[in-house]
Design brief:
Helix content is 52%, strand content 11%. It is built from 19 helices and 13 strands. α6 links the parallel β4 and β5. α13 packs antiparallel against α14. The chain starts with 8 loop residues before the first helix and ends with a helix. The structure holds NADP nicotinamide-adenine-dinucleotide phosphate (NAP).
Length: 499
């Protein structure tokens, strides 16, 4: 039996195909590229859209990316993988991405599958930039897709929260009070402030420009994709990998990991959060497996005559952890694996009341920051804590709606897709979260943050544990001093009133 004969249906689908990925250098894109190379070994080429950044050429950026331990496994398993990667130099904010005529022709004539992963994921980006990257670039790629004679599948990565203006989110298109054409025209012709003014009533239904522009991009695909085999993949909050290629791998700060980092380092102690709400986390490797399967599924469904765009809500299962479970797991693991670079004893209090939260932030975050900065200035060091606290506070405020609100999702298309997978594909492209071991995942999630985001390994563990104990006792003493101070003030006020 030949090697090809042993390929699974998904591997067979990808065999010999050329794939175009935007956002291949990002958090999700890196795992997607790695997994395609490793688990679909007969792919002919992966064209990666990439721009120059910080004086680094696209080629040197790619070399640097493939040097990372994340790609060690693919290096061993598919030694010739690098030959399959072809950089396509382009920037989403430029007309037609600034593609050369040659690159454009290559893409049009060669590509069969598109994964449009790239986006501007900054929550509080200005509306112009968000519209150009998240909507206009999607229009450009759709135009390109329409010219591709071999196109089998075009997957647009959206977000589960693109339609968070409704409480129950189904796997279907929604209508919006503004369309992509108007918004793009505004960004071309009007000043930022005037656009904001014009659309503020509409966009205020979304908590930020990111989710708003992602929604309008979905509207664009609804109106413009025609008979193209398009799928929309909407992941929830994508977080560290559960299994592969490395357990707990993460390199992005946008999900609950941002909370963990600032908390474990001792910078923050109070969080505006409803402990019963679920953070709706999905592991990045499961997300990518479902994404790969979705291109295969879209192709099969369209071949069988399904003409509508398939939409996949890839979200955490209903028995996923709450913010309370998340905190307990992280606190427990941190006790055993504290951080060497921690600045204070890590403890986290969730507060739902807005005013109380602001008071705690001022007393518990900003006041200590001010004191530390004042001491720094006195000893001729540059003050940094106030600035850092303001940055953390701003980020915390924009992510707050996702810690205090909950949405429900229909996931029928994802479930059906899973049931269509062969048993071999279910093993290789595991994305079912039924019976998922959250305890193990959250342990590895913390360990991944410690290792991959904060560069702390076990070589500093012994000293970190000693530091942790010292911080613990300092914190207990501070609590006693604080309790005495409160008691003394109350007693003082009481005696003044009584005399
Ligand atoms: N992470 C999540 O929790 C999450 C949740 C739901 C949905 N999503 C969706 O998943 C996708 C990937 O997210 P991510 O977390 O991987 O984001 P990310 O790490 O910020 O990656 C974004 C990618 O887009 C590229 N990009 C941005 N602006 C570009 C431009 N002007 N020209 C060319 N490339 C550009 C970036 O390239 P550079 O490397 O050059 O910057 C990077 O490769 C996005 O569509 C996002 O909306 C993510």
């Amino acid at each position: 039996m030949g090697i090809e004969a042993r390929r699974t249906p998904i591997q067979t689908f990808y065999a010999g195909l050329a794939i175009f990925i935007t956002g291949g250098t990002g958090f999700v894109g890196k795992i997607l590229t790695e997994k395609l190379l490793r688990s679909c070994p007969d792919i002919s080429t992966i064209y990666l859209l990439i721009r120059s950044k910080k004086d680094k050429s696209p080629e040197s950026r790619l070399d640097e990316m493939f040097e990372k331990p994340l790609f060690d496994r693919v290096k061993n398993e598919v030694p010739n993988f690098r030959k399959k990667i072809v950089p396509i130099i382009g920037n989403l904010d430029t007309e037609n991405f600034g593609l050369s005529e040659n690159d454009k022709n290559i893409l049009i004539n060669q590509v069969s599958i598109i994964f449009h992963v790239a986006a501007n994921v900054r929550f509080i980006e200005n509306i112009k930039t968000s519209t150009i990257i998240n909507i206009n670039a999607t229009a450009t790629i759709l135009k390109l897709a329409k010219l591709m004679p071999n196109l089998k599948s075009f997957i647009h990565v959206s977000t589960a929260y693109a339609n968070c203006h409704v409480k129950h989110i189904e796997e279907r298109f929604y209508s919006y009070p503004i369309n992509h054409e108007d918004l793009i025209t505004f960004t071309r012709n009007l000043h930022e402030n005037i656009i904001e003014e014009k659309i503020s009533r509409i966009s205020s239904q979304w908590p930020n420009t990111y989710t708003f522009t992602k929604a309008i991009a979905e509207g664009l695909l609804r109106d413009e994709s025609g008979s193209l085999p398009v799928g929309i993949f909407r992941p929830a909050i994508v977080s560290s990998s559960a299994e592969e290629p490395l357990v707990g791998w993460i390199d992005n700060m946008y999900g609950p990991q941002s909370v963990t980092v600032s908390w474990a380092l001792g910078f923050t102690r109070f969080l505006s959060c409803n402990p019963d709400v679920k953070p709706n986390i999905v592991p990045v490797d499961f997300t990518v497996n479902a994404l790969i399967a979705s291109a295969w599924n879209v192709y099969n469904q369209f071949r069988r005559g399904k003409a509508n765009t398939l939409i996949y809500n890839f979200v955490s299962p209903v028995d996923g952890p709450t913010w309370n479970d998340y905190r307990n797991a992280i606190v427990d693991t941190n006790k055993t694996y504290p951080l060497y670079n921690a600045k204070y004893f890590p403890f986290m209090i969730y507060i739902q009341h807005k005013i109380l939260y602001r008071i705690c932030v001022w007393l518990g975050h900003f006041l200590p920051a001010l004191i530390i900065d004042a001491i720094s200035i006195c000893i001729n060091r540059s003050p940094r804590m106030w600035k850092l606290c303001k940055k953390i506070d701003k980020f915390s405020n924009v992510t707050q709606p996702f810690r205090t609100n909950e949405w429900s999702f229909s996931t029928d298309n994802v479930q059906k897709m899973w049931s269509h997978l062969s048993s071999e594909d279910q093993k290789i492209f595991q994305f079912s979260m039924v019976g998922f071991d959250w305890k193990k995942y959250l342990f590895n999630h913390y360990m991944g943050i410690r290792l991959y985001l904060l560069n702390e390994d076990d070589s500093t563990l012994e000293i970190s544990r000693i530091k942790y104990k010292r911080f613990y006792w300092r914190h207990q003493i501070l609590k006693i001093v604080f309790a005495f101070a409160v008691f003394w003030i109350v007693w003082l006020v009481f005696t003044i009133i009584c005399t």
